[in-house]
Design a protein that fits this description.
This protein is α+β, with helices and mostly antiparallel strands and 174 residues long. It has five helices and six strands, in the order αααββαββββα. β3 and β4 form a beta hairpin.
């Protein structure tokens, strides 16, 4: 083989190896080391703050803050009655004075001006009750507004997740 062909072959092998290593990096990171504490991404932190602000406004009965955080066309849909959405005004009346909930296992996906956050919400009393919640937030000139919320009762397994389950599809753009 000519020296220039060898150099080209070596460069191709090196490039192929670099691509394989680059492509496998997300998989290796998702596996995580046992006992390792996962870090919140920028989007998880941001949406956690939005959910906390919404819960705090509801707890202190702050209609103006709720109004700013909810999109005008906001509605909540529940697995108990999926064909009957709870409109914005009824949701505001129903949640006023409700204690803030614990939020865990949040994952967020960004799609343009939307952020879709899924998480487990537990009541302040604990009592083994948990809801799986999916929030659709829209970025506006004045900040983030909650556009839709989907709620379902979570099973007991959701309260005790498997410690080594890799995250899939969470916290990605696209």
């Amino acid at each position: 083989m000519r020296p220039s062909a060898l150099l080209r072959t070596d460069a191709c092998v090196a490039l192929l190896l670099a691509l394989v290593l680059w492509a496998s990096a997300p998989w290796a990171a998702a596996q995580g080391a046992p006992g390792r504490v996962p870090l919140a991404t920028r989007l998880v932190k941001l949406m956690s703050e939005q959910v906390a602000a919404l819960d705090a406004a509801a707890e202190r009965r702050d209609a103006a803050a709720l109004d700013a955080l909810l999109a005008p066309q906001f509605e909540e849909r529940s697995s108990a009655q999926p064909g009957t959405p709870l409109p914005r005004d009824a949701w505001m009346a129903q949640t006023q004075g409700r204690a803030a909930r614990g939020v865990t296992q949040m994952a967020v996906r960004e799609a343009g001006e939307l952020a879709i956050a899924s998480y487990l919400a537990t009541t302040a009393t604990g009592a083994g009750t948990a809801q799986f919640v999916v929030d659709v937030w829209r970025r506006t000139d004045s900040g983030w507004q909650l556009l839709n919320r989907y709620v379902s009762q979570a099973g007991n397994a959701a309260l005790n997740p498997a410690p080594e389950a890799p995250a899939t599809g969470a916290n990605r753009k696209g």
